[in-house]
Design brief:
single chain
Length: 168
């Protein structure tokens, strides 16, 4: 059963502070990622396809299969065969590989597909942000970053300032 945002009940600070963060972040993760994956599936793409297209667009001609796979593995929860993803994108004509350097480059049809996927991801982004003040969202991200760091993880943004599936 789903609850629309206008049907959300109010709770005391004490009740909310006692909530299990793992349960709520897990539920949010499954909803957000599920919505993103559903939108990408309309384009016959997976998240790893999206990540690959996005990285190839962001740094043309610099990613090889091994370097991109190493970059994406920490975000993969599907036990993805990245070589199969790269092969699929090459077969579609959306990605090419330089025979000498082995670097991957997005093609014009690949960029068109990336833009379609980006628009689909942005729909999810906008839906997820409905009725949430920007300051509250920023606070939430900073709290989650601190929780990750408190538990021994890296709470910083990725080296390029973005996580791999941020919708850009």
């Amino acid at each position: 059963m789903s609850t629309r945002t206008e049907d959300l009940k109010e709770y005391s600070r004490e009740e909310l502070a006692a909530q299990p963060i793992g349960a709520w972040t897990g539920m949010a993760y499954r909803r957000v990622v599920g919505a993103i994956r559903a939108q990408l599936a309309v384009e016959d793409l997976t998240q790893p396809h999206w990540w690959t297209l996005n990285h190839a667009a962001g740094a043309p001609g610099t990613w090889t299969r091994p370097t991109l796979t190493e970059r994406l593995l920490p975000y993969d929860d599907l036990d993805t065969d990245f070589d199969a993803v790269y092969d699929d994108l090459v077969t579609r004509g959306w990605l090419t590989e330089d025979a000498t350097t082995r670097t991957m480059t997005l093609t014009e049809p690949g960029e068109a597909a990336r833009l379609r996927a980006r628009d689909r991801n942005l729909r999810v982004h906008h839906q997820a942000h409905e009725n949430i003040d920007l300051a509250d969202f920023v606070t939430t991200i900073n709290v989650l970053r601190r929780i990750v760091a408190n538990l021994g993880g890296d709470g910083n943004l990725g080296g390029d300032g973005n996580l791999p599936d941020n919708g850009k």
